[in-house]
Amino acid sequence: MKKTFKKIAATLSAAVMCAIPMASALSANAAAGPNARCTMRKIYWIDSTAYVKKINVGFTNVREGCSPATITAIAAGTPSFGGSAGDVYYNCGGTLTANGSNYIKGAAVSFSVLCNSPSCYEEGRNVYCYAYKAGGVQSYNSVHTVPAFLVGDINKDGYVNGSDSGILNTGLCQNAFTNVSYDGVVTINSNNYYYYTFDIDDNGVVNANDLTMLRKYESSSTYKFER
Ligand SMILES: [Ca+2]
Ligand SMILES: [Ca+2]
Questions:
Q1: Which fold has domain 1-150?
Q2: Which of 17, 81, 128, 178 is the Cys-Cys partner for 94 at CB 3.0 to 4.6 Å?
């Protein structure tokens, strides 16, 4: 029982909403509406052979039509994140530090932004992830990312619907995700997809929990993706 509680507590602290709009910013650009359900996500991952002990991340996105980013520490470690809201942009960032003798590798950190529509999503200039080895030595070329994508839109048609969960379901039935790396390609019925696009709950692996969450989203008009 104690262990379970600890795990839940760790999960909660790993995902941090980095900036809450302040009352004084009421005259600023309108944020995401209460019915906003489009989650745009940008992910960083780290080479498994780079011996990275710490990463330093920063992220900014335009307020208009979108929420502040939620930073999720996908990799194990100690997160320290924070943020603020300006008139035009939300800003956030911080560090994720590996614990003890561990290293940060694979899917490391993500930024999830809730938007009225995908077209509202716009990053500022100050978006980065730097990696450091023991002793604070910067690790170059070990950090990878891709442009932000609409979570759940697996077939990239701009909508999240039964076609997307159908692909995920087929992939799980065919064991298509077995032994595929986080940034690897998954082939399902002769079509290629990136593994990370199926990781709906943002925990670094693809399994039945992602399908459950995607189906819940598709069958509801109010449910929003949350880790
Ligand atoms: Ca789709
Ligand atoms: Ca997952």
A1: Immunoglobulin-like (2.60.40)
A2: 81
